[in-house]
Design a protein that fits this description.
The chain is α/β, with parallel strands linked by helices. It contains 35 helices and 20 strands. Strands 1-2-3-4 form a four-stranded parallel β-sheet, sandwiched between helices. It has a four-stranded parallel β-sheet with strand order 5-6-7-8, sandwiched between helices. α4 links the parallel β2 and β3. α3 packs parallel to α4 and α10 packs parallel to α12.
Length: about 1450
């Protein structure tokens, strides 16, 4: 922008300091004074004044000049001369007579009007006084001032109406400072002002010494005098002035000079002795005008403006006065009712002593990984790296010329200095460490850069070099600048004009906007655009190898914020003079609205001009619009005020701080893709030098913007191994011949290429764009793993192209299936293996293969529908089965196992954009992830399960299971473990990274997935990135000479971590519905967990928890009742999983549970070691007696939960006396116990747990145990039995009949008669399979050290299974147990099903209840046989596969004592 010679600052009067007339003082009465005025100088009628006058006698007159009110003033007087020039045709003698007549008339005219205003506050104000002086030339007027002052004092003393000692006087001294020039330095201005003040010192000292109680206005009429000089050609001449300025001195220059002069005068007066007095003060009153006067003798306007200036605090007197539009009379306020002095204005010096201190310059650092040039000099501008640029240049106005960029604070005159070396787009002072400019940034990439400007000076000086910006220029001047720049480049021998790449930045338009209102046609948007087009056309026609930045004109309207904030120091006169069309109109004016619209049209026209493509007709030339200035935020201080430190002293041009921020923003724009460029600039943003995208390291153009989904591979060495490797640990990228993929819809590519609003198209499988197996186009346009690998091996095969299903031929080896879950992964593997074997393009045994597997998202989506089916254990089993097939059947393969996308990411995107995402389809798309309430325990449970999925997959890989062959390995690629989502300006997730369903990734996201996967594949184990920032620049890494292989555990020198010891077998409680019923229920069928007050148990050693922990010092097993699965209450759930500890989460005041090992703390645990069914009635009576005797239990009101589990000892001794231990006897004894409970206990829920399948568990251990089996005699019926023996088969049948008999108890009519009593059979032990470890062997951690009892871990598993059974409807209960460790296996009551299930609230039909025993009788043996077969089969398969390993010492579960 400009300091221009055409800004208009017009005055109101031609008022000069000169010699007065010698006629005597007029009679000091108002009527006489008015009669002295010539008709044309007489003031008009009294001005309308809206101010409220004070009531007479309402207060005592002020005793201090700093609290002086208008009503305190008794008389108004003036000295100096208000000189009105004669007509140019008047002869010299007539001029002298004319001046003598008019000087005093002008003074009286102004003072009369001023007196009329003050008389409104003080009606007894005396007539004004204007004493004459001796004749003197204007430039010698100071001596005349002293004479006038002396005459004024004499007349005041002689005025009988004035109490000279006690009345307050307002004295006005008119003068002009007419010897200034804007070319003078600041120090010279101060010396001149000091000299002028010395000439006035005698006058001011005299008044101070002689006149008590005086308020003196020092009125500067210099601008009016200057306007008179400017208007001489119109016949309005002024007396001779001693101008030392050249003819080029402009109105703006004069305004800058006046402002500097005003600051100097005010500082001098504020710091002088006159400001320290209580009865005398001198205040500087400046006059500035924004339009030409309508009449040169308007005394009313001059007086009014003087009065209004007196109403402004010192230091804030910067209003522009107008003769065309008379301002209203300002009134004193209640807050500030006095005339302003420097003291009561809290004036701050404009020119403080420390003003020489410069702001610290803002340097920066450039730390980019790739700062080198292209391998060869590029021939296309669309492949131009920063280091390829050798020449820099710039065109524009004063913002590019650097006006004021290095000026000292408040050194307004220095704004004329052009600090081109600091210019944001082309300055080259010092280096990037101290001066941030675009040129200095580029010099970090290419230290040999040429063309940047240094130091200070105009465009025609050698140091400007190729910075040809001209202060004050507009768009119409650009073609001339362009012509000169091209000529300079052609003539410069230090550059190769034809071969060197050039960067030219063009920025213009501020001056056009600032003057638009004065000439809308000249500065129209069309002319603005056309003029820029002419300059660009010249560059396009004549400059080879050039990248042109066209920076859009800034949003200039925010300048008003700085202008209007009175708390911020700014020279508003100069600011308004520089840019009148932006600052002079009201906020809601039509003119301002039009300007805002034009500003926008300038920007839009710039875009249309470039986007027309007319500058992209050559491969070595382009123009790119850089829009960072289109929206500009005014920088603020910590107090919320506009921060003027970003601006030069004129508050208009940029200071070096703003130049640095602009350079950083321009650089960032140059690297951002077209269409994604930042269009808002906040100067408060710290300088941060962005680095070129390593994926695409070129300056962004319109033609290479389409590479947004492509990538650049910088690898120089792309060769394969010298001979095909035989080890997967020596596999180079170029050795890969086949790619394949397994998974769900993410890998199938659903919705990758869908348009943003085409929800139905998400069903389309864009397999050719899939991150892990897509092969559409090439890497330059589509980033996928196959396209990366094809850069190393053009003969790669297996990748998918186009769209279609898994069975389509173009899907090839992408066998992912939408909606697939882990259980379907085995089927995909089988299909993949078959295709690879049969395809003629693949040498199945010789070709190296990369197979990428990603699964699990859909399992989580359905987890809440069946937490057992989709448990972490089942997920692991399915994954393991699939990987086992690959391991067994596929030679020469590297398998990438990729973590699935976290459900929290899906939720953030989907639920964070309800207006963009199909939230009404949440339950269909992914029910268990998208429909849960934020912050709910259900959601926390789901996230815990997701983590369990991830940890189980990691443990599977790190078990070393798939590292037994030299040509096969599975590597976990963890980049998706922690995904950072991009956000929009409003803080919501950016849905552009997702398909229209807001679930599946879009192509932009798939591109990032590909880059992250590739990076993971090259990273050694132990140092792999586990975080994906979707918006980050992820470069395509390259194998190095020292590390050329795809990384495996071995070539990473990585040792798999040993499995960490589990500290305890507690569980995490994730339920939300834990409150009891609002009133104590009367029906057992409405019983919530929180309603239970008492727990109790009957049974044998499993319920007493015999041997749950290591033996004591005596070597005898101990009953750890506090750890018992059904009745133990030691510690809390987080450390010990037991049924009471679960219930304590619902009711902390639960009673009856056992603690410790002593009988005294057994609570209501009535179980006895070795007990059989025949002992249950006795235990039931004992339990009732304990309850009746307990003071803590209200037998009639408290709800009780009793768990009965017995039968192991009956089975172990069945062969000794089949009749006494028959199923019929077993059930009869249980009924006797239940009858006692039914008759004696109100409000009771009874769990009857089916006996476990003992024979199956025993056989599953293979008859081996490390301990001497002396206790084997405890289970005589199993001793020495063979699996196919008749005895064992008979025992199994009895076992099944025991279970069948127990199941019939669910429907015994005698237990259905009472509403407050229920018996529910819990069948989770019906099908008992031996738990296995990772090697496929029996996992003995579930058992005690001698294999005779359940360990604490076993008790925890029984407690979890019992609790989960209690929350399952009768008829749909789980009949087997999942022996896997997880802290998140506990089910939770739901709002829909908050009760413990009974036959009644399970809504079983009556006929089904009657038939159920018969159905279960035959169903149980069948299910058990199948379960046993599966268990044995799995175990045998495990052992077969692991047979090569060293066998563990013999172990087994030979006998169980219950």
């Amino acid at each position: 922008m400009a300091l221009r010679p055409s800004i208009s600052l017009l005055g109101l009067l031609l008022l000069l300091l000169g010699q007065g007339s010698t006629q005597p003082l007029s009679d000091p009465v108002r009527t006489t004074a008015e009669e002295q005025l010539l008709p044309e100088l007489s003031p008009p009628s009294i001005l309308p004044i809206q101010c409220q006058p004070e009531k007479p006698g309402s207060r005592v007159p002020s005793t201090s000049v700093h609290s002086l009110r208008p009503s305190d003033i008794k008389v108004v007087a003036a000295i100096g001369n208000l000189e009105i020039p004669p007509d140019s045709g008047t002869v010299n003698l007539e001029k002298g007579k004319w001046a003598e007549d008019r000087r005093q008339q002008a003074c009286m005219g102004v003072m009369t009007v001023l007196s009329d205003i003050i008389r409104h506050f003080h009606p007894s104000l005396l007539a004004p006084m204007c004493p004459p002086g001796e004749r003197a030339e204007p430039h010698n007027g100071a001596g005349n001032l002293w004479a006038q002052a002396k005459e004024l004092v004499r007349q005041m003393r002689e005025n009988l109406q004035l109490d000279f000692q006690n009345d307050w006087k307002l004295i006005n001294i008119f003068f002009s400072n007419n010897s200034q020039c804007h070319q003078s330095p600041s120090a010279q201005q101060e010396r001149h002002a000091m000299g002028g003040l010395d000439e006035l010192t005698a006058t001011l000292d005299y008044l101070h010494r002689e006149v008590p109680k005086a308020f003196v206005n020092l009125v500067d009429l210099s601008e009016a005098l200057w306007i008179s000089h400017q208007l001489q050609s119109s016949g309005l001449s002024a007396p001779a002035l001693h101008y030392s300025c050249s003819d080029e001195t402009s109105k703006l220059s004069w305004a800058v000079t006046q402002w500097a002069s005003q600051g100097t005068w005010e500082d001098l007066l504020a710091s002088s002795r006159f400001n320290e007095q209580e009865l005398f003060a001198v205040v500087f009153q400046p006059f500035f005008f924004d339009s030409a006067p309508m009449t040169l003798s308007d005394a009313t306007t001059l007086a009014l403006n003087l009065w209004n200036s007196m109403m402004e605090p010192a230091g804030q007197k910067d209003a522009l006065f107008s003769a065309e539009e008379r301002m209203p009379v300002r009134c004193p306020t209640q807050v500030d009712p006095y005339l302003f002095t420097y003291r009561n204005s809290n004036y701050t010096l404009r020119w403080p002593k420390d003003r020489e201190t410069l702001q610290e310059r803002e340097g920066a650092e450039v730390r980019c990984p790739d700062m080198g040039p292209s391998h060869t000099i590029p021939t296309s501008v669309h492949r131009l790296k920063p280091a390829d640029i050798k020449v820099i240049g710039a065109l524009g106005d004063s913002l590019t010329a650097g006006n004021g960029a290095g000026s000292k604070p408040r050194d307004i005159l220095d704004v004329f200095t052009q600090y081109r070396g600091l210019s944001w787009s082309v300055g080259g002072d010092q280096d990037i460490g101290t001066v941030t400019t675009l040129a200095n940034i580029l010099r970090e990439f290419n230290p040999s850069l040429k063309g940047f400007s240094v130091g200070k000076g105009k465009e025609n000086q050698p140091t400007a070099f190729f910075n040809q910006a001209v202060a004050g220029d507009r768009a119409e001047d650009l073609p001339v600048q362009a012509r000169k720049l091209v000529d300079l480049m052609k003539q410069d021998t230090s550059i190769n004009f034809q071969e060197d790449w050039k960067l030219i930045t063009l920025f213009i338009g501020g001056n056009d906007l600032c003057d638009f209102c004065n000439n809308p046609v000249r500065y129209s948007p069309q002319n603005f655009t056309d003029n820029i087009g002419k300059a660009l056309g010249l560059l396009h026609a004549e400059v080879p190898r050039a990248f042109v930045n066209l920076v859009t004109v800034l949003e200039i309207i925010n300048l008003r914020e700085l202008y209007q904030e009175k708390k911020v120091y700014c020279p508003r006169l100069i600011l308004r003079s520089l840019c009148p069309c932006v600052l002079k109109f009201d906020d809601n004016s039509t003119e301002l609205s039009n300007l805002i619209d034009v500003n926008k049209k300038y920007q839009e026209g710039t875009h249309r001009l470039v986007e027309s493509g007319q500058y992209d007709t050559r491969e070595d030339f382009t123009v790119v619009v850089q829009p960072f200035f289109e929206k500009v935020d005014m920088p603020k201080t910590s107090d919320g005020l506009p921060d003027s430190s970003f601006f030069a002293p004129d508050c208009f041009h940029f200071h070096h701080k703003a130049h640095a921020r602009a350079a950083s923003a321009l650089w960032k724009n140059m690297l951002e893709p077209v269409g994604q460029k930042t269009a808002r600039h906040n100067f408060e943003d710290k300088v941060n030098i962005a680095c070129p995208n390593q994926v695409w390291p070129f300056l962004s153009t319109y033609k290479n913007k389409m590479q947004g989904h492509g990538s650049w591979l910088p690898c120089r060495d792309r060769s394969p191994s010298a001979s095909p490797p035989t080890s997967v640990h020596a596999l180079r990228p170029a050795d890969i011949r086949v790619v394949a993929a397994l998974g769900d819809s993410l890998t199938a590519g659903n919705g990758i290429g869908s348009k943003p609003d085409d929800l139905f198209d998400v069903a389309t499988q864009y397999r050719g764009l899939s991150y892990s197996s897509g092969g559409d186009s090439s890497l330059e346009n589509v980033t996928t793993l196959p396209n990366i690998l094809r850069e190393f091996n053009r003969n790669l095969t297996g990748f998918a192209v186009g769209t279609g299903n898994a069975d389509d031929s173009n899907a090839f080896l992408n066998q992912a299936v939408p909606r697939a879950k882990a259980e379907e992964l085995t089927s995909q593997v089988q299909t993949l293996v078959q295709r690879m074997r049969e395809d003629h393009r693949i040498n199945f045994h010789e070709d190296w293969k990369v197979i990428t597997v990603l699964i699990g998202g859909n399992d989580l989506c359905d987890y809440c529908t069946d937490s057992n089916l989709y448990s972490a254990a089942n997920f692991l089993n399915h994954l393991r089965n699939a990987l086992d097939i690959l391991h067994r059947e596929v030679p020469r393969a590297l398998v990438n196992l990729v973590d699935f996308l976290s459900p929290s990411v899906m939720r953030q995107v989907f639920l964070g954009n309800p207006d963009r995402c199909p939230v009404q389809r949440a339950s269909i798309l992914c029910n268990c992830v998208l429909t849960l309430r934020e912050g709910s325990q259900e959601l926390a449970r789901l996230e815990a399960v997701a983590r369990a999925y991830q940890s189980s997959a990691r443990e599977l890989v790190e078990s070393g299971r798939y590292d037994t062959r030299e040509d096969f390995s599975v590597v976990l690629q963890p980049f998706l473990q922690h995904t950072q989502l991009p956000t929009q300006a409003d803080g919501r997730p950016d849905v552009s990274f997702f398909a229209p369903d807001c679930i599946h990734p879009s192509q932009k996201f798939h591109s990032q997935l590909s880059r992250a996967l590739w990076a993971n594949m090259l990273q050694p184990l132990g140092r792999k990135t586990d975080t994906l920032d979707v918006t980050a620049d992820i470069p395509l890494s390259c194998p190095t000479q020292g590390e050329p292989f795809l990384r495996t555990f071995r070539n990473s020198n990585y040792t798999y971590p040993s499995e960490p010891a589990i500290e305890n077998w507690g569980s995490d409680f994730l339920c939300t519905e834990w409150s009891p019923s609002t009133t104590v229920p009367t029906s057992v069928h409405k019983l919530r967990p929180g309603d239970i007050k008492v727990v109790a148990a009957l049974g044998d050693s499993l319920t007493t928890a015999l041997g749950a922990r290591l033996r004591n010092a005596s070597g005898l097993p101990t009953s750890w009742r506090g750890l018992s699965w059904s009745i133990g209450g030691d510690g809390a759930l987080e450390a010990h999983t037991t049924l009471p500890n679960i219930l304590k989460k619902f009711n902390p005041h639960l009673h009856g549970f056992s603690t410790g090992t002593r009988e005294e703390t057994a609570g209501l645990n009535a179980a006895v070691e070795g007990a059989r069914a025949r002992d249950m009635p006795g235990q039931a009576r004992d339990l009732v007696a304990r309850m009746r005797s307990s003071r803590e239990i209200n037998l009639d009101q408290d709800w009780k939960l009793v768990t009965l589990f017995v039968g192991g000892n009956d089975l172990c001794h069945y062969c000794e006396d089949p009749e006494a231990h028959s199923p019929g006897e077993y059930v009869r004894h249980l009924r006797q116990a239940l009858d006692i409970l039914y008759e004696e206990l109100p409000r009771t829920f009874v769990n009857v747990v089916e006996v476990m399948e003992l024979a199956g568990l025993y056989q599953g251990q293979g008859g081996k145990c490390a301990m001497p089996l002396a206790a084997q005699s405890n289970c005589t019926c199993l001793r020495g039995s063979q699996e196919k023996s008749l005895e064992l088969q008979e025992l199994k049948k009895v076992n099944w009949n025991f279970q069948s008999g127990v199941s019939s108890l669910n429907y015994q009519p005698q237990y259905m008669q009472r509403e407050d009593f229920a018996v529910v059979v819990q069948p989770f032990l019906q099908n008992t399979l031996a738990p296995l470890n990772d090697r496929g062997d029996a996992d003995l951690t579930f058992f005690s050290e001698d294999c005779l009892y359940f360990s604490e871990r076993g008790h925890a598993e029984l407690a979890i299974a019992l609790w989960n059974n209690m929350l399952e409807p009768v008829g749909h209960k789980t009949t087997s147990n999942n022996f896997t460790h997880s802290r998140t296996k506990l089910k939770c009551p739901s709002p829909e099903s908050p009760y413990l299930y009974t036959w009644k609230n399970s809504q079983l039909p009556a006929d089904q209840a009657e038939e159920s025993p018969q159905v279960l009788y035959w169903a149980i043996p069948v299910t058990a046989i199948v379960g046993l077969a599966v268990g044995v089969g799995v175990m045998m398969a495990w052992r077969a596969m692991r047979g090569h390993r060293r066998e563990d010492p013999a172990m087994g579960l030979n006998a169980m004592s219950f």
